[in-house]
Give the backbone structure.
Amino acid sequence: MADAKKISKTKKVGGQKKISARRPSSTRKKPRVMATWKYITISTLITIGALALAYRPILRPAFNRFTTCNGHKIYGACIPKGYSVYGIDVSHHQGEIDWKRLKRGTPNEPPISFVYIKATEGSDHNDTRFEKNWDNAKNNNFLCGAYHYFSTTSSGKAQAELFISKVNLEPGDLPPMVDIEDEPDNATEYKEELKNFISLLENHYKVKPLIYTYRKFHDKYINDVFFNDYPLWIAQYNVTKPGITNEWTMWQCTKNGKLPGIGHKVDINIFNGSIEELNSLVIK
């Protein structure tokens, strides 16, 4: 009786067997296989995209913590060897700073010898913490300098006027610094505005301003006779020395410094020389 219940795959028609219209099982499974591969492909692309987005802020710092440090493990970071004079640059991003605690420093770490403080940006923006940072840093006997973040949306003259109106540098202060990072739409016009800004500061303070930028920006926009006459402050991380052939004065070697008195990460900078040579740069 069990055999009588089996469903035959063929039928007799006119004494001949007729093959059933059923599709082979392999054909029936194809849509499901294609859907599975589609799901895997989409999931893989989403994963790759998420890893790419997370690499710079999350994964790279995590990897760096486990890499071998070929320099000094100081200031909460790996600092290249061969130098002895260190400083920081700060702005409102560091929040409230305990300058007395910062001055005391950390045992077995070299002191912070100089501080650059953000004063202005563009032609109409004042850093909200400049006056407080400036006064407190000087009151705690730090060697101080002020800097301006250069904008591509306003003239060099207007930006210089803002900085000069905000920053009163005295004998014993470090030269002003201009921070240039924003890519210009018109390189020729940008250079002229930047030259105008630098010249106005030099004429006013009677000292050559420092130019801060990163290596690729320097090579693309300002590696020429005019700009090479000014002290260079180069930003480049995770290297044992700056990858630049030009002579440099300052080197921002990491942005992940941790110092007592500062609750946020801070840039650590190296001066290319002795403390006596640093002191010789100050405004006379």
The helical segments are 25-66, 99-104, 130-139, 156-166, 187-205, 215-222, 275-279. The chain has two domains: 25-67, 72-279.
